[in-house]
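Appendix C reproduces, verbatim, an entry submitted by the partner laboratory led by Prof. M.T., so that reviewers can inspect both the input and the predicted structure.
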Amino acid sequence: MGTALVNARFTPENVKLLDMSCSQALILLAFNDNESLSYAQIKEITGLSENEVKRQLVALTMADHQVLIQTSLKPEETKGGDSKKVVRRAIGPQDTFEVNTLFSAKLKRIAINQMQKKESHKETEEVHEKVLSDRKYLIDAAVVRTMKARLRLSQTDLIAEVIKLVRFPLDIAVLKQRLECLIDSDYMRRDDNDRALFHYVA
């Protein structure tokens, strides 16, 4: 989801600084050693998914900042046989591309249209749940490591130690839930006389 600044030399005299997505930059880099590339070659060289390749090739061949030319497109013909304007169609495996050496723009630095993937609400929730699940294990490991080293700690000191160990913002409520889970799993126990004091269970 990041961006990159690419120093693009269309001709020796025509050099532009392109502000683009990392996927777009990856596609352009493939043309350093190739004048023309097929859709299949671009997909193989970059290792990008089918949807990502299509999405970024559309952005790179758009008329407003046409960095690449879809060379497999053929001009539509009029009734008299004269060539008409090129009609765009969906990009696919049948296409080939080359760098647009006639690329022109008034500005030295140009922002290329970035067609990033829009995550659905369901996908966002799944990613969030995965992150929370991974963090639970990291919190548990930090608590056990601390308790194993110190053997007994007050809740306040334990929370302070765990916050130092983990590398992400820690929700205290989540940490307290993890403490209860570790108590239930017999990794630690509360003191019989002081509920705010924990003992490591070897």
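The chain has two domains: 3-111, 121-200. Additional entries are available on request from the coordinating office.
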